[in-house]
Amino acid sequence: MNQSWPTKEKDLLVAEKVIEEYAESVDSRALGLFEVVHRPDDRQMAFRLSNWVLALAKYFVSTYGAEQGDFVTRKVVSRCLINGETLH
């Protein structure tokens, strides 16, 4: 994933806005990458990507197309999660 990312600053600003709006809508200061979904009919719990991630993906794919949108979504989510640090 060493592609250039010329729209980085703009994309991060969009992400910040989407994340802030989502956090306000769910009244939360801490957002996770995944959300737990309880299915009472099946007596199961499952994980799904959080709606803020899905909103970002939808925006970036509609803006840049499938391939570049996926690339930008991954870069933005990675930046949000690790803020440029290496995971060990």
Features:
about 90 residues, 3 helices, alpha+beta, about 55% helix, globular, two-stranded antiparallel ribbon
Radius of gyration: 15 Å
Structural class: alpha+beta
**What does the oligomeric state look like here?**
single chain
Main sheet characteristics? 2 strands, antiparallel
In which order are the strands of the major sheet placed?
Answer: 1-2
Give the helix level as a range of percent. 55-70%
**Number of helical elements:** 3
Order of helices and strands: HEEHH
**How many β-strand runs?**
2
- What is the 3D form? globular
Low-confidence stretches at least 5 residues in length (pLDDT < 50)?
Answer: none
Determine the N-to-C terminus distance.
Answer: 19 Å
Mean pLDDT score: 86
| Proportion of beta-strand residues | 5-15%
Task: Report on this structure.
The structure is a single chain. Strand 1 and strand 2 (44-49) form a beta hairpin. Strands 1-2 form a two-stranded antiparallel ribbon. Helix 2 (51-64) runs antiparallel to helix 3 (66-82). The chain has a domain at 49-88. It is built from three helices and two strands. The protein starts with 7 loop residues before the first helix and ends in a 6-residue tail after the last helix. The radius of gyration is 15 Å and the shape is globular. Helix content is 56%, strand content 14%. The chain has helices at 8-25, 51-64, 66-82; strands at residues 34-39, 44-49. It is α+β, with helices and mostly antiparallel strands and 88 residues long.
